[in-house]
Amino acid sequence: MNDVAARVKNLDIAVFDGDGIGPEIMAPTIALIQQVTSQVPDYALSFRSHPAGAGHYAKTGQSLPAESLTAARKADAILLSAMGLPSIRYPNGTEISPQIDLRMELNLYAGVRPVTIFPGAPCPLGDPRAATVDFVLIRESTEGLFASHGKGTINGNESATETLVITRKVSEKLFDFAFKLAQRRKAAGRGKGVVTCVDKANVFQAFAFFRSIFLERAKAFPDLTANSAYVDATALWMVERPWTFDVLVTENMFGDILSDLGAGLMGSLGLAPSADIGDDIALFQPCHGSAPDIAGQGLANPLAMILSGAMMLDWLGHENNSDGLIQSGKRLDDAVRAVLAEGRFRTRDIGGTSTTQQMADAVAAHL
Ligand code: ATP
Questions:
Q1: Which of 313, 319, 307, 249 minimizes the C-alpha distance to 278?
Q2: pLDDT of 285
Q3: Residue 2: per-residue pLDDT
Q4: Which CATH fold topology does 123-266 show?
Q5: Does the CB atom of residue 267 touch ligand 1 within 6 A?
Q6: So what's the pLDDT on residue 92?
Q7: Tell me, what's the pLDDT at 7?
Q8: Residue 205 and which of 81, 193, 213, 347 are 20 to 30 A apart at CA?
Q9: What are the Isopropylmalate dehydrogenase-like domain coordinates in residue numbering (predicted)?
Q10: Which pTM value belongs to this model?
Q11: In CATH terms, are 1-112+267-367 and 123-266 the same topology?
Q12: Which residue has the least CA distance to atom 14 on ligand 1?
């Protein structure tokens, strides 16, 4: 092995192609990541696909095989498209969702959902200030109401119960993550230095507890402003004045709902990326599901998946102290913005007739 090869560090990316439109948006995303990182001198990324999802469950009776979970645990990062199909369910009637199991198993507590209105995207808001919307919703992703996932009970066909869990350990880590993100955004001139805890502390003790931990942790970040807001009012303000937000942090179920509202503001679920981040491993996937209604037709918008790939490069760059990877992530993100701003290529969800591959090719041409 020559000296240059010896200095190149390999990063192992565990890939989950998933169900529905998953494989259609994953393949061009990997190609773009390979293209944009080909010039990074000190790191090489290798991609390995692992089985999981509704299709795999239908064939084998397993939704997330132990080997796939182990591979995800060992990887440097995880790239996941979308999993689950309404037609394939567990015997208790719930959908196959290994992405939720992965978040729980790997303790990926911080679900990062950026809400940015890109120039050229079909934002439904008429106000010109909408062009300045740029905030991040952080959804706790391992507990809250989802702690009850697979554990709910139906009692004698008369009542049903699911239990919401908030722990101090996870909440402290979650809030510290949110405050540090706000500091980084402020330092980069991108944020206002404001973190808002979104809860329902006026009605539920668990949320009063959640808010009290938030206010405790806020004391360690005197350079930032800590606000609290109720989730119902936040939904209203996300429509009325989303340009006033910087970093929002919330419980799992509230975050699940608000992040789809955020994607609606962005103009399409097909434009909304996300990351699920733990202490030393992270998973990147678009906010949307497997969209079975358009699967196999070349209609899927690949941009949310591609933007999730850009977030992965940024995270890997910071984790490995590689400016080359950070810059690759930025180039990929910039290329997506350029395609949207140019407006020549648009998939159906954002008002055009371009195919998934044409959209990805347009991004490649901008790199
Ligand atoms: P989940 O609960 O798994 O998030 P969901 O039930 O909310 O999934 P999605 O699969 O996200 O549903 O699809 C919701 C709608 O958005 C569908 O009409 C689908 O076609 C559309 N959609 C989702 N992702 C895309 C995409 N990448 N490109 C185009 N349309 C999309």
A1: 319
A2: 97
A3: 53
A4: Isopropylmalate Dehydrogenase (3.40.718)
A5: no
A6: 87
A7: 78
A8: 193
A9: 12-363
A10: 0.94
A11: yes
A12: 291
